[in-house]
Amino acid sequence: MAKPLSPTEISAHDTPEKGLYIIIDANVYDLTGFVDEHPGGAKILKRVGGKDASKQFWKYHNESVLKKYEGRLKIGRVEEKAKL
């Protein structure tokens, strides 16, 4: 089961040295070990590290790419805020 991660925790992982997390559609992916494998280059991943990259991801990829890598890279979901 994917663990909930807070936006603060995700934003702290914004470089390969600290761990590189991105958000795609409320799911969190750890791309630390994938940066050098990314066919589009490491630069773009470093630019979106610690942030919601949904818009950028869907601009260049389709769902098959997400399905191919999510088992290996998905680590959790963005924590939902309590509704009062």
Helix content: 25-40%
**What class, by secondary structure content?**
alpha+beta
Mean pLDDT: 92
Using the alpha-carbon principal axes, give the shape: globular
Number of strand segments: 5
Low-pLDDT regions: none
Give the number of helices.
Answer: 4
Biggest sheet layout: 5 strands, mixed
Strand order of the largest sheet: 1-5-4-3-2
Distance between the amino and carboxyl termini: 26 Å
Instruction: Estimate what percentage of residues fall within beta strands.
Output: 15-25%
Name the helix and strand elements from N-terminus to C-terminus, one letter apiece: EHEEEHHHE
What's the topology here?
Layout: E1 3-5, H1 7-11, E2 14-15, E3 19-24, E4 27-30, H2 42-48, H3 54-60, H4 63-73, E5 74-78
Parallel strand pairs: 1-5
Antiparallel strand pairs: 2-3, 3-4, 4-5
How is this structure best described in words?
This protein is of the alpha+beta class and 84 residues long. It is built from four helices and five strands, in the order βαβββαααβ. The chain has helices spanning 7-11, 42-48, 54-60, 63-73, and strands at residues 3-5, 14-15, 19-24, 27-30, 74-78. Strand 2 and strand 3 (19-24) form a beta hairpin.
